[in-house]
Design a protein that fits this description.
Elements lengths: L1 H10 L2 H30 L7 H26 L4 H24 L4 H25 L6 H33 L3 H19 L18 H21 L1 H31 L4 H33 L1 H20 L4 H29 L2 H29 L7 H24 L4
Helix pairs in contact: 1-6, 2-3, 2-4, 2-5, 2-6, 2-7, 3-5, 3-8, 3-13, 4-5, 4-7, 6-7, 6-10, 8-13, 9-10, 9-12, 9-13, 9-14, 10-11, 10-12, 11-12, 11-14
């Protein structure tokens, strides 16, 4: 396989191997920690999990990415990236241990969430640093290849970490604290691996003309506003982002509903519910991979907006047809369909933004995209918390998502006629 051969070429580069090891261990720890957090909030026997608790957990997991992300680069251009990996992952290991002790003890709920929020906030710096450091360990000719394979490997590592967390939780120890400690060990291993990289290798280079931190942060904030204004002038990109935000909102609301169904409607105990959640996540992930295979071919033939419209229309029809039964098997089929259409629409949106936005604004627009993507998911969880009954069976949530999918599909079909290049 070509991908295997390409990876073999990159793995001959010693410092790339070391940087990749930092990424794999760090992101596998992220997967473990996220599953542990979801398990503690939703599937702990001593907890009567509510949709509001699930919404709070999602906010803890996703909001740091949204609000810290655009400003992380300002600090990463001032700190040694190697030291960010070392101290950042060591700090997360310590904070994860604190989270484990909080799970074991009787502490106020806000203290647990504060600890988890700190762990996920540091993650934004580590991931951004990994991307910024990549050109320092790979030559220019192989940089595109490295940019393609390295994040993909990290995503697979996070998925594998989540799977490992499910196994530990269900087989070896029915304890969320044990799973969190496993994540702490992986964070620590990532920190130790980073010591094998020379301190100055990953940059940034010293800059005698560097502006003050406060000024840099203010410039970043102004840059985001300028990116928003540029986005308003580029209608195809703005429309694609609006549609993707709505699709992501639907996916978030339905995700919370499935969590509640796994917890209360489909399982006799917490372990069984957690296993069903793992199955649903895995099937939805299969839909994501299917989208990666199908989207390049279909978007090229239909056009990007028409492919996005097809995705939204498919969801509008199949989501209520499968979801209103509130039965396990149809809902698992719906999980695959929604994974496929959500990721298919996202791939098309990425391409629209990349082609419609000028290069000088592209970074700022993608920062805004990241904010919209995560805030939509958290906002959907908050709305679902108000509408969902305790067992998760809510026809209004299913019907409301179907209506929103249909509206998005109609708008995208209309826009596809005016924006011919999309």
């Amino acid at each position: 396989m070509p991908v295997v051969g390409d990876l073999r070429v990159l793995l001959r580069l010693r410092n790339f191997r070391r940087l990749l090891a930092v990424r794999l261990l760090s992101q596998s720890a992220d997967g473990v920690y996220q599953v542990a957090l979801a398990s503690y909030v939703v599937f702990s026997p001593e907890k009567e999990a509510s949709a509001a608790a699930i919404a709070s957990a999602m906010a803890v997991l996703l909001l740091p990415y949204s609000f810290v992300g655009p400003f992380a680069g300002v600090l990463l251009d001032r700190w040694s990236r190697r030291q960010v990996f070392l101290y950042g992952n060591a700090l997360r290991a310590a904070l994860a241990c604190c989270t484990a002790f909080l799970i074991l003890g009787s502490v106020p709920e806000w203290l647990f969430y504060a600890s988890a929020l700190c762990v996920t906030a540091v993650n934004r710096f580590v991931l951004a640093g990994l991307s910024a450091a990549l050109p320092r360990v790979v030559d220019t000719e192989r940089l595109i290849l490295a940019n393609s394979l390295s994040p993909t490997a990290g995503t697979l590592a996070a998925t594998a970490g989540g799977g490992l967390a499910f196994v530990v939780r269900l087989v070896f120890a029915d304890s969320d604290a044990a799973v969190v400690l496993l994540g702490a060990m992986l964070y620590l291993a990532s920190a130790l691996i980073s010591l094998r990289l020379p301190t100055r290798l990953l940059g940034p280079d010293p800059d005698g003309n560097r502006i003050r931190l406060g000024t840099a942060l203010a410039i970043t904030a102004r840059g985001l506003v300028e990116g928003l204004h540029h986005l308003a002038e580029r209608k195809p990109a703005g429309r694609a982002l609006a549609a993707m935000t709505a699709i992501r909102f639907c996916y978030g609301a339905l995700t919370v509903m499935v969590l509640m169904l796994c917890r209360y409607a489909w399982s006799a105990n917490d372990s069984e519910g957690l296993a069903l959640l793992g199955l649903a996540v895995g099937i939805s992930g299969a839909g994501f991979f299917a989208a990666a295979v199908v989207t390049p071919w279909t978007a090229a033939r239909l056009g990007r907006f028409r492919w996005m419209a097809t995705c939204a229309a498919t969801a509008a029809v199949l989501e209520p047809a499968l979801g209103l039964w509130f039965a396990l098997s149809p809902m698992l089929v719906a999980a695959f369909v929604l994974g496929l259409v959500t990721q298919g629409a996202k791939i098309a949106t990425d391409t629209v933004v990349q082609t419609a936005v000028e290069d000088v604004y592209r970074g700022r627009v993608f920062s805004l995209y990241d904010v919209l993507f995560n805030v939509a998911f958290v906002g959907a969880a908050a709305v679902a918390a108000l509408l969902l009954p305790p067992d998760g069976r809510s026809a209004p949530v299913v019907a409301g998502a179907a209506v929103l999918y249909a509206v998005v599909a109609a708008l995208l079909f209309r826009w596809s006629r005016t924006d011919r290049d999309q």
